[in-house]
């Protein structure tokens, strides 16, 4: 396991991202009891926020370094190459997922699966549905994270020089986020529905990650020093968020009946345009983890942490496999009952993700081995492409 993991990186980032990828697999499997352990049940943010923030961190760290050494045009071309890779992965996943659902629906209950997962256009207008999917204007359920990532990464390629002036970049990013929320601005879609994740809002979290990851030549990345009062505020925010999460997902009838003035506020905490409380929750978690877990902590290099680090370092194939496997897990849980089905779905699913990550890491290591003494900026770009 250790030989497959790049230990020279900040493993805190890889461990958190690996945990987020596992949580995405679990959360996309309805009926999975392990979903009770994922952050969406006790915080206002979930694995998606962590995924986007850390994607921005990786982009700022790796591509920013390439830009400083070889210029904006070269770095932007590397970013757009990554965008193309993500696009191909999304289309491949789209085809696999649609085929999965179509075959399963034919044998079980087509109406439930096809309607719930928004695949009904394939029944009435399949060629148009495929064309719109290629344009990212049609996104069935579970297939909306990669389009978000594609768009924000392309935005990063265009404005990459601003990373050298992080506060200006964050100010402009915040203005776009506010405009998207206040004026309900989003990208066009096929059937008039908004994007499930509005890229014009979620780009703020991505660019915050970029600012945190970028290290200017001869300098240090942006840091937010530890302050006890700030840590206390973060803890209070998380406690309040946990209470609101329980009310929203588990005690909504109570909230409507006993808290009529507060219930509309809870209902307005949206995910599509990154509600301020979801954003603040993710930043509070980041602040506490960054200061509460040392970069050289020994447990990051042992046991389960290494497994999550391996998953986090092979994010794209693990994410795609997790989405595909989650639907298979759902079918298994609906066809049979009992604790043994839960165990089988979670163990086999996790084993498949870890096995894929190990295979991808091994192949990447073999591919990089003859070039270890090669061009360092190009190696940094390849590291970003892998991460």
From TrEMBL:
**InterPro entries per the UniProt record, alphabetical:** UCP028704_OpgC
Q: Which UniProt keywords apply?
A: Membrane, Transmembrane, Transmembrane helix
Membrane-crossing residue ranges in chain numbering? 12-30, 50-67, 79-103, 141-160, 167-183, 195-214, 226-252, 272-293, 305-327, 339-363
Q: Which domain of life is it from?
A: Bacteria
Q: Does the keyword Cytoplasm apply?
A: no
Q: Which PANTHER family match?
A: BLL4819 PROTEIN (PTHR38592:SF3)
Q: What is this protein called?
A: OpgC domain-containing protein
Instruction: Identify the species of origin.
Output: Neoroseomonas marina
């Amino acid at each position: 396991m250790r030989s497959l993991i790049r230990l020279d990186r900040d493993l805190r980032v890889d461990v958190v991202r690996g945990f987020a990828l596992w949580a995405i697999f679990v959360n996309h499997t309805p009926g999975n009891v392990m979903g009770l352990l994922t952050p969406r049940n006790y915080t206002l943010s979930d694995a998606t926020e962590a995924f986007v923030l850390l994607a921005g961190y990786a982009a700022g760290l790796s591509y920013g370094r390439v830009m400083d050494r070889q210029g904006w045009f070269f770095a932007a071309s590397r970013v757009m190459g990554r965008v193309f890779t993500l696009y191909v992965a999304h289309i491949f996943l789209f085809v696999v997922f649609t085929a999965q659902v179509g075959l399963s629906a034919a044998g079980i209950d087509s109406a439930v699966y096809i309607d719930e997962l928004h695949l009904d256009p394939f029944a009435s207008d399949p060629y148009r549905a495929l064309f719109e999917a290629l344009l990212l204007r049609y996104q069935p359920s579970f297939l909306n994270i990669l389009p978000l990532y594609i768009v924000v990464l392309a935005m990063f390629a265009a404005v990459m020089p601003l990373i050298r002036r992080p506060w200006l970049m964050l100010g402009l990013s915040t203005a776009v986020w506010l405009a998207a929320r206040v004026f309900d601005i989003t990208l066009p879609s096929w059937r008039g529905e908004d994007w499930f994740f509005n890229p014009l809002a979620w780009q703020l979290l991505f660019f915050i990650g970029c600012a945190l990851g970028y290290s200017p030549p001869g300098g240090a990345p942006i840091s937010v020093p530890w302050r006890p009062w700030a840590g206390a505020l973060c803890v209070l925010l998380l406690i309040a968020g946990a209470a609101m999460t329980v009310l929203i997902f588990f005690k909504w009838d109570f909230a409507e009946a006993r808290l009529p003035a507060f219930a509309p506020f809870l209902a307005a905490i949206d995910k599509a345009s990154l509600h301020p409380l979801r954003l603040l929750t993710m930043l509070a978690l980041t602040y506490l983890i960054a200061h509460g877990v040392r970069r050289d902590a020994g447990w990051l290099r042992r046991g389960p942490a290494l497994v999550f680090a391996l998953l986090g370092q092979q994010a794209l194939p693990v994410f795609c496999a997790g989405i595909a496997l989650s639907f298979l897990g759902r079918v298994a849980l609906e066809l049979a009952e009992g604790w043994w089905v839960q165990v089988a779905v979670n163990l086999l699913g996790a084993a498949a993700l870890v096995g894929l990550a190990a295979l991808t890491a091994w192949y990447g290591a073999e591919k990089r081995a003859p070039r270890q003494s090669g061009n360092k900026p190009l190696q940094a770009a390849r590291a970003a492409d892998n991460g």
